[in-house]
Amino acid sequence: MNAMHDVIVIGGGVIGLAIARELRSDRSRSVLVVDRSGIGEGTSWAAAGMLSALSEADSGSSFLDLCMAGQRMYRGFAEELVRETDIDCGCSTNGLLHLASPDDSPETLRDRYETQRRFSPNVEFLYPDELRLVEPRVTALVHGALFFPDDLQVTPRRLVRALHESCIRRGVEIRSGALVTEVSKGVVRIAAEELRAKTIIVASGVWTSELKGLDPPVPVRPRKGQILSLSTSGQPFRCMIRWNNAYFVPRPDGDLVVGATSEDAGFDRSLTPAGIGTLLSKAQAISSHVGSFPIKEMWSGLRPGTPDGLPIIGRSRIPGVFYATGHYRNGILLAPITASIMAALVNERTPELPIEPYSPLRF
């Protein structure tokens, strides 16, 4: 059976849905999203939802520019989704507190502060007594912290629902449980069925390397992240907190998300005592108070990583085939800016930011 569309998006996570939604702004264009499982049930479902472009950056880069552009878009992006769907994706500005690591000297922290202020003048340097005023339940012994008041969070599962609903309302056709096996010029193959389109966008995340026919093939590998949430009452933490490789994301409903491991485990999504135990240990190192909070949920997800840690965004060697994959831990953050870039490419416009560093041809 053959079917013809203007655009086929392979992948129904937050990246694929955001792209499909953006492309259907032109209502004369037919858009189909195909996903191997349920829409938004993969990496996007498992994410924590931190939107913090600057807190991990020690210097400027084109990738930092991309992430900050994505973060700046989020308020309008989320508000538009609420207007369209009546689904609140939990976008809120509660800021992020980045605690100094044990290896950071006061001079190192001060240097990082001066560097990051060049990109965001609202970044604040906090001494230990000031830190306790912001978050009195932090018990980690640190000699300071940086506070990023402009950092946001969303609830990824709500975000996916909102994007899905918005796509439906805009007339995007969606097929779940459709395993794409091969891509060629103008053709997406699903088992014995061929779907045809002028434009094909590969947004299949960790499964990208499984697709046959891609040119160039791209080295996207899964990185497992185990994560959990605790039940709290009265919202004991005001803002998101990062310390070393651990973080807290306090939700408005009282849940406290604690994450996350980063494991080279292939497609294994099992929860392990080592992984969950490490999270619980790090959580109690940040705040001894969390030791009494009940565990509400534990889960894992697979992040689509690349050898250089950068996403893959741009044209393939096959005419009409584009990549939007390999976003690793930044898929939620980069969804709106990636959608904008892909719309520019499909419409033969120059994207608002340089995308050469993310070219699939770099491999």
What would you say about this model in short?
The protein is an alpha+beta fold and 363 residues long.
Walk me through this protein's architecture.
There is one protein chain. By secondary structure, this protein is an alpha+beta fold. 28% of the residues lie in helices and 27% in strands. It has 8 helices and 19 strands. The chain has helices at residues 14-23, 43-46, 62-85, 106-117, 128-134, 156-170, 273-286, 331-346; strands at 2-10, 31-34, 50-51, 92-93, 96-99, 124-126, 145-148, 152-153, 173-175, 180-184, 187-190, 193-202, 221-231, 240-243, 246-250, 255-259, 295-305, 312-315, 321-325. Strands 1, 2, 9, 10, 11, 12, 18 and 19 form an 8-stranded mixed sheet that branches. An 8-stranded mixed sheet has the order 6-7-5-14-15-16-13-17, with helices on both faces. Strands 3-8-4 form a 3-stranded antiparallel sheet, with helices on one face. Strand 11 (187-190) and strand 12 form a beta hairpin. Helix 3 packs across helix 6 (156-170). The protein is globular and about 65 Å long.
Task: Considering the chains and any ligands shown, give keywords for the structure.
single chain; 363 residues; alpha+beta; 8-stranded mixed sheet
Task: Note the topology.
Layout: E1 2-10, H1 14-23, E2 31-34, H2 43-46, E3 50-51, H3 62-85, E4 92-93, E5 96-99, H4 106-117, E6 124-126, H5 128-134, E7 145-148, E8 152-153, H6 156-170, E9 173-175, E10 180-184, E11 187-190, E12 193-202, E13 221-231, E14 240-243, E15 246-250, E16 255-259, H7 273-286, E17 295-305, E18 312-315, E19 321-325, H8 331-346
Parallel strand pairs: 1-2, 1-12, 2-9, 5-14, 12-19
Antiparallel strand pairs: 3-8, 4-8, 5-7, 6-7, 10-11, 11-12, 13-16, 13-17, 14-15, 15-16, 18-19
Helix pairs in contact: 1-6, 1-8, 3-6, 3-8
